Amino acid sequence: MPDLLLELFSEEIPARMQGRAADDLKALVTNALVERGLTYESAKAFVTPRRLTLAVGGLAARQPDRHEQRKGPRVGAPAKALEGFLKAAGLASIDEATVQSDPKGDFYVARIHKHGAPTPEVIAEIVPAVIRAFPWPKSMRWGAGTLRWVRPLHSIVATFGTPQDEPEVIRFEVDGVVSGDVTRGHRVHAPGEIRVKRFDDYVASLDKAHVVLDAERRRDIIRADARTLANAQNLELVEDEALVEEVAGLVEWPVTLMGQFEAEFLDVPDEVIRATIRANQKCFVLKDPATGRLTNRFILVANLDATDGGAAIVHGNERVVRARLSDARFFWETDKKTRLDDRLEKLKAITFHAKLGTQYERVERITRLAKELAPRVGADPAKAETAARLAKADLVTEMVGEFPELQGLMGRYYAMAEGLDPEIAAALEEHYKPQGPSDRIPVAPVSIAVALADKIDTLVGFWAIDEKPTGSKDPYALRRAALGVVRIILENGLRLRLLDRLGPEIGADLLAFLADRLKVQLREQGKRPDLVDAVFAAGDSSASDDLVLIVRRVEALETLLATDDGVNLLAGYRRAANILKAEEKKDGAGAFEAAPDPALFAEPAESALSAALDVAEPAAAVALAAEDFPAATAALAKLRPEVDAFFDGIMVNAPEPSLRANRLALLARLRRATRAVADFDRIAG
């Protein structure tokens, strides 16, 4: 079956847009093919800085024929209705239609047969439309044209054919750019025209022309060659996958080279050196495996094989790196001359949020909360108070102004340079953590107190001004903050009553938001989110906002439901709850909450269930009070035989009103007993 090769050749595409663009090209073209009845066996998109390429294999040679039947107006309908029908159906006269009868009368019917078009014709229609409507995040027009593209579009390759035959060029034109079978190689090494036929020939031709088409292969070359250069000097590459991804989007022919800078710059913190070299020159840093510290060497990736072996390229990069490191050293030395405490006044000029005040006001709130939380997390209140007060001071330093990603970390370095307590210094960096699901959490008590205070203040503040996340939008990263609270509490085993910190007005709603983040966290661990809902809704209020207890309850409930007794108890509970729900609609909510009267028990199964509850309820209550949740669920599991026997032998809705009410009261007691541990109504399955 024939294959399609499509290349859109332009000026350099920004690296950050390349991956999405390749996915979009593949999706837009293949979806359009399928919509037109054209199937295919495979499709893969490729991208380099100057080209978007799509290879579609095993395409049908032409569209399938289509047979349609279109019902028209009733026989004898007005002439205008008939004219409209003929035009829509593509018929020359009403004689080309047939008449069909149904219970409503006789109607004209058009039987339409459409021959499928050859696939090249369909592609020639699809591709120009895709190019004109391509969803670049940013695009431009150039010259006198009307086409918007990320950078000027120079040429289009579009060929179609089988591996055995000479492929044909699919002819079309987009804003003066005419499709053909000619591309170009590397801008320096092979700038001339290259005629291509099909995908395999195209890849081989580009490779000879110093273009590595596959981005993953470029990434592999960069990783492997950088490690080899580092190992040759007995050094270790500081891995940076995001930088590998970015650099692979800047070059078509990656060539790794090593540069160096003066050792005196190593007095600047390692993270500053790395941020400087990474941000300004897109270079990788190297460390000494013996000490773990950075060395004065770096790896750069060129886009060509230079005739001088890369000496001029290395020299140019070294000159820029040296200048940037000089700036960084100046920032470092200048910042150390001002104490963090003396910087706080400048925070009054920085707005955190128009409705939430300045960073200074926010620091005051975090400081109060951190001091309050400190005893609950095992921290020294005075240290927590100091750390919280200084937590945002580095925002007004020269270094963080240049490299915002170093906030917190630079606070730690400046605190250490001042000789502040190591716990306080560590908290200045760690209070931002975790910044993602895989980031480490703070474990030192002072760091925990400040980190929780920072995140809780953020959540409470934005909830108070009704700036909650909506759908996929979360501009203030509140989901991340909530997940950070959850992880810090759970992974440190902290016993905190969150409602005491969230406030009475917004506490319940914000707690529900935290519950959703807890579900995400537990789902990552393979636990069921419905069990979290069941525990949150338990009758025991102590289950509502102590996250550690919630997880313990979830684990106990999970264990219970993994047993036959647990499964059958759940089934019995549901039967009881359904009966009660139906009868309470008739008699009113709470109609059966009074204690059942043993004198009205008419069957042994009633007495047996009541006696079992007499044992299980207090046993579960004692276990809950002792926070022994496995024991609480085990006490409920022992009800299974009596619950089964009750439903096997008792007609709940007895004709005698007193008997019916008493039996429903017994079921209500069973419902209350289980809800003390978890709301079984919330359990799925």
Notes on the structure:
One of its GO terms (molecular function) is glycine-tRNA ligase activity. It catalyses: tRNA(Gly) + glycine + ATP = glycyl-tRNA(Gly) + AMP + diphosphate. Tetramer of two alpha and two beta subunits. Belongs to the class-II aminoacyl-tRNA synthetase family. It is an enzyme of class 6 (ligase). By secondary structure, this protein is α+β, with helices and mostly antiparallel strands. It is 48% helix and 14% strand. The chain is built from 24 helices and 18 strands. Strands 1, 2, 3, 7, 8, 9 and 10 form a seven-stranded mixed β-sheet that branches. Strand 2 (42-48) and strand 3 (51-57) form a beta hairpin. Helix 14 (445-464) runs antiparallel to helix 15 (478-491). The longest helix has 25 residues, at 311-335. The two termini are 48 Å apart. The model has no long low-confidence stretch (mean pLDDT 92).
